[in-house]
Structures are given as C-alpha cells and as structure tokens.
Specification:
Rossmann fold, binds NADP nicotinamide-adenine-dinucleotide phosphate, 8 helices
Length: 327
C-alpha cells in the first residue's frame, strides 16, 4: 500500500512509499482508509528530531476514517464505517496517511449514520476535541445563550468550536490573529470577532473585567492566563492546546475569588464512554452543518507533506482534508 513515511533512521526524510500495513496485536482492527486530515500534531510529528514522534520510521497521520476490512470484534464488524484516532496512532505506531491502517479497537469508533467518512475527517481529532470542549463546559453548567470566547478561531479546534457552540445554542466570540477572516468566522457561528490582543484587559490589575461566561482555548500561554483573569464568577475555560506556549504563568485569584474552573481536555487517552458520547453529540449536530465549508483544501498523498508544512506555518483556515483515493 502507499503511505506517507517519516524516516529518521539516518537522514531525515518524508516521502510517499510502498509499505506493508502491520498489526501489533491479534485483536487489532484493519481499516481501509478513505480520508484522513492534517492536525497541528501531525506537523510536530513530521519534523526532524521531533519530541512527539516515538519511532524513527513511521507512517504519519493521527486521524483516519474508512471501512473495517478485518476484525474480531462484534461491535466493529467488517463493513462498518469508522474513525480511528487517539492513543499512539500516528505517533508511536503507523497512522492514517496510508491506504490501510491497523489499529487497537480502543482507538476505533463507529460513525453515526449522519456522518460520512469524508465528514468524519473534516471533523477529525480537531473537531472531536472541539465537541469534547463544548460538552466539558455544558457539564460545568454553562447555560444556553452564554457568551463563550474561542481562541485560535480560524484553526481546526477553534473553527469547529464556533460551529458546535452555535449549533447548541451558545453565543461564541472568535479571537483570531486573522481579522480579515471575520466574515468566514461569522459564517461559522461567531456572534463577534475580536483580535488576539483584545483578550488582554487591565494588565496593571490582578484581575480583569468579568467578561466571558465560558471559553475554549487551544492557544495556551499568556492567552490562557488572560482568559482566566477575565472569566465571570463561576465560569470555566476548557483548555486543550499550546500553539502559543505550553507554559502557564498565572495567579490564584480567578480561582479563589471568582470560583472559576480550568477544565483540561484530552482527546488522546479519553475512555470509551466519552469517545462514544462525543461522536453521538457530533452525530446530533451533523445534519445542520455543511462540512465542505470547513475545508481549507483537499490533498492526495503526493502533496500531503506540503499541506503539513502549510499547517505548521498557520497558512490555513479550518481543516486540510487528505483523500486516499478509495472512492
Ligand atoms: N488536548 C487534545 O487532545 C488536543 C486535540 C487536538 C488539538 N490539540 C491542540 O490544540 C491546538 C490547536 O490544534 P489545531 O489542530 O486546531 O491547530 P491549527 O489548525 O493549527 O489552529 C491553531 C490556531 O491557533 C492560532 N495560532 C497559531 N499560532 C498562534 C500563536 N503563536 N499565538 C496565538 N494564536 C496562534 C491560529 O488561529 P488564529 O489565526 O485564528 O488566531 C491557528 O489557526 C494544538 O496545540 C494542538 O496540539 C489538543
């Protein structure tokens, strides 16, 4: 089969090659991949001396969607349409930038009827994380109609957070470094669009004005600090990312005087009940969403590395879809 292989056994290289799909365990499920998608994490994996990749030679791709072709599991029968993501997929074992993928059943989710394999990869880990973040805020008690700040809004997690918040009755406000994308962000559901710098307020004070009923942050660093100090009493931020920085320097005042909560969102090791719940929620909103509008561009394997580089550089809006040519 053809696959995008990252090879650092000697000199670093990334190329499309013929390889053989390998099962690591007899219980692994074989999936014929129809679509994949490019995540920020794929850019971290596909670089020399990557601290994320855990194999010197690896088929990249933390996401895949397709049809089961070999399985010993009654709940994942041959012919089932599935998404593959999470765990060590595309990091320590071969990933979804290939015509076939063997995966542990814990990383294979049956797709709801309302989601095609193509739409599943427009959603991808980014959209899964976005819906997981929305559900985390809902579990915290954020009321319908709440004004929720979304950072990194033109990115994969950000743009789908806007879409799902709007679909579930919230009023999302987009924070972006690309203000010229404001019309696109409004079309995704943003009621307001602000510049990145506007997230900071009253820098000389310990706490900022109580502004947000909730927030979804995939940026981290000072942005997350600014969000914490501007959440309303009892509000929460769902934090999943670190595109700006993995460091967080803040103080305890938002927590001890405003009772705010920092909700960590992890899509990688999350258990089966949550995976099923998130895909169910994605299935519920899917009929109201045109996933084609969330695609930046579609690439075959041959131009995939260029697409990964464009995601690394932030030269994209929404999702980069990978078409494995199975249809
Ligand atoms: N916890 C998890 O399970 C999980 C799952 C998926 C993703 N993630 C993480 O979430 C983050 C976003 O992933 P993604 O796939 O959505 O990435 P992405 O598509 O590259 O989007 C990131 C967005 O952040 C903004 N941005 C980029 N550089 C920035 C900077 N230096 N300062 C402030 N904003 C910046 C840009 O949006 P604007 O131009 O609109 O500001 C960019 O489009 C990554 O850190 C990823 O590793 C975590």
């Amino acid at each position: 089969m053809r696959a995008l292989v990252i090879d650092e056994s000697a000199e670093f290289s990334v190329s499309v090659r013929e390889v053989t799909a390998r099962a690591l365990d007899p219980t692994d499920v074989l999936v014929r991949v129809e679509y994949s998608g490019v995540n920020f994490k794929d850019a971290l994996v596909a670089q020399a001396k990557s601290r994320v990749r855990r194999q010197p030679v690896l088929v990249g791709g933390v996401d895949a969607a397709g049809v089961v072709t070999e399985s010993t599991h009654a709940d994942l029968p041959v012919g089932a349409r599935v998404a593959v993501h999470g765990g060590v997929v595309g990091v320590a074992r071969d990933g979804g930038f290939a015509e076939f993928i063997y995966a542990s059943p814990t990383n294979v989710s049956p797709l709801p009827e309302s989601i095609s394999t193509r739409d599943a990869m427009v959603i991808g880990t980014a959209g899964f994380t976005a819906m997981q973040s929305v559900l985390a805020l809902e579990d915290h008690g954020i009321a319908v109609g709440a004004r929720v700040l979304v950072t990194g809004a033109t990115g994969g997690v950000g743009s789908q957070s806007l879409t799902y918040l709007a679909a579930r009755g919230y009023a999302p406000v987009a924070s972006t470094g690309s203000l010229d994308e404001a019309p696109w962000l409004r079309a995704r559901g943003a009621v307001d669009v602000i510049a990145r710098a506007e997230v900071a307020d009253k820098p000389d004070r310990v706490l900022a004005t109580e502004t947000w009923d909730g927030a979804i942050d995939c940026v981290g660093g000072d942005t997350l600090h600014q969000i914490l100090r501007s959440l309303r009493y009892g509000a929460a931020v769902a934090a999943s990312g670190l595109v700006a920085s993995a460091d967080l320097t803040t103080n305890v005042y938002p927590f001890i005087t405003r009772g705010v909560a920092l909700l960590g969102v992890d899509s990688v090791e999350v258990g089966a009940p949550t995976r099923a719940r998130v895909w169910r929620a994605l299935g519920e909103v899917a009929p109201s969403i045109n996933y084609e509008d969330l695609i930046d561009h579609t690439t075959p394997l041959e131009t995939l590395f260029e697409a990964i580089e464009s995601v690394r550089a932030g030269h994209h809006r929404g999702r980069v879809l990978v078409d494995l040519g199975a249809n």
